[in-house]
């Protein structure tokens, strides 16, 4: 018998690096994020299992939500290779062709790190292995990873990644009937 599974993908809180448009998810949350996250406690009230990406910003978010997460490497942020921690506007000046290739082709990884295709595949693999997990799981992860999960569930092209906005401290809902995942839109609690 197939088990139904609810999955809440919770976007971590914002960091100073995010405000500076740096390609990193490291660093502590901005001070006002903790208060914002406390307001989101209702998202995990009924979670049977809580997972977190391994980066400090995700773990700190999970703790701010009063959760003790299991670290899940599949939900780690994209590996930006030699571009890690660099500001996007600086890269656009120093390596405009490489940035253009990366933004235009999901299979490109001119930074020597991970392509969106590779990151999307690891998320899809995790979703496939948890399709009949049962219950309600909460995952604290990064905006790009949530976008890739949505596109994978919808079988949409990864080139559409920049057409989805994921706010920090927001939730995205997926449901599985044991056979397939679907995106679930719901009104706020």
How would you describe the overall organization of this protein?
The chain has one domain (5-184): 3-Layer(aba) Sandwich (Rossmann fold). Strand 2 (49-52), helix 3 (56-64) and strand 3 form a beta-alpha-beta unit. It contains 7 helices and 6 strands, in the order βααβαβαααβαββ. With 189 residues, it is α/β, with parallel strands linked by helices. The model has no long low-confidence stretch (mean pLDDT 89). The chain has helices at residues 16-19, 31-38, 56-64, 88-94, 96-104, 116-129, 143-154; strands at 5-11, 49-52, 70-71, 135-141, 171-176, 181-184. InterPro entries: His_Pase_superF_clade-1, His_PPase_superfam.
In short:
With 189 residues, this protein is α/β, with parallel strands linked by helices. Helix content is 33%, strand content 16%. It is built from seven helices and six strands; from the N terminus they run E-H-H-E-H-E-H-H-H-E-H-E-E.
List keywords for this structure.
single chain, 189 residues, alpha/beta, Rossmann fold, 6-stranded mixed sheet, 7 helices, 33% helix, 16% strand, globular, His_PPase_superfam, His_Pase_superF_clade-1, Histidine phosphatase family protein
